[in-house]
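Problem: given the chain below (444 residues), write out its structure.
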Amino acid sequence: MGKATGFMEYERLELPLRDPAERVKDYAPLQLPVSDKNRRRQSGRCMDCGVPFCQAGVEFEGQFLGCPLHNLIPEWNDLLYSGNYPAALARLLKTNCFPEFTGRVCPALCERACTCGMIGQSVTIHDNERAIIDYAFDNDLMQPVLPAAHSGKTVAVVGSGPAGLAAAHYLNRRGHQVTVFERDSVPGGLLSYGIAPMKLPQAVVERRVRLMQDEGVSFQTNCDVGRDVSAAFLQGFDLVIFACGAQKPRALSWPTQAKSGVYYALDFLKAASEARLEGLESEITAKGKPVVIVGAGDSASDCVAICLRQGCRDIHQLIRRPASSYPGALDYAHEESQAVFGRDIRRFETQIEDLVCGEDGGLTAVRTVAGETLKAQLLIIASGFSGCEDYALDAYEALKAAGVPVLQAGDMACGASLVVHAIASGKKAAAEADRRLMGYTNIL
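Solution.
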């Protein structure tokens, strides 16, 4: 290793966050950069361990440990420490086609498996990865890579989330003609519409899509397979990969139904994203309203953060499980709500019993099981997802019945999960598709 004693000499240094009271005023990135000197020191903390569990990507006793993409982490940490960014980039891209995404929104399963973390603090693998790919884009190292030869085979990829993009990336590199069908107006799926832009700026997604287009991938937007695009049309392709996600929300119901003011988290986040992209105010807004959010995952936190930036009057987050299930420091959204309202907005072991509506049917409050009434003109349900849209599944089954080779990838195949799992699933689907088309594959 470049610095064999680095883990003993350097303390872990994470990317510093902007002040919570200031960052709620805009949609700029949450983190501040660190110097190249400090970044290289952080990579120098990577130990010369005999077995780098960080890249294992295995499930152990119900926990997934290590990188699902099997990133060559010690290798590119060593190269980053020596300042050899081009070589570090080459090793990073060997296994991960989209490190600019995982380097921002992945919960760093690799760091949980870091040997250094067994005796102290794990290496900042997540931030090091991001530093390498951002340097590459900023210094024109990310240039289009065109296929060496064309196979003459055509592949349709349904959905342009991380799984669909990964499948398209690898199959295009193998020389297949790839067309990606996206139901929304902008490619990216949940990368564009389901993650707060403070964590993953839309510009980061757009530059990757442009690069893929320059490499030959075709994107057809506003094309909803199963509705706008029929299964019969897709029969003209040699193979079809469905990567439609699992965006159908897990429905919740109460005795009283509201005619307005109740939305699912993805609908709220999508409306906010579309409004920002078009420079308009969102049709679903928290501005000036008391808000209640149900759920405790990443989507719920992103909804909290967006509501704060839209100027909500008040906010409560209702969580079914006890506080003991959520140990550790507050996440970014709860730091921000603490700065704005001076309290922890989370209410643990709390569920909604009924909704209170005005004469026009609009939501005015929620009643909890404990009998408490909380004012609410906007209720956002972030209770998870139940699977893929039925019409997309119908299209999949129709193609399968017609004898067209079809595969599934990402959340559609595995259920709602992490971006890194979706990329790994898309890569696996691309390898299987390539094997079916060519009789073998070198997508590893």
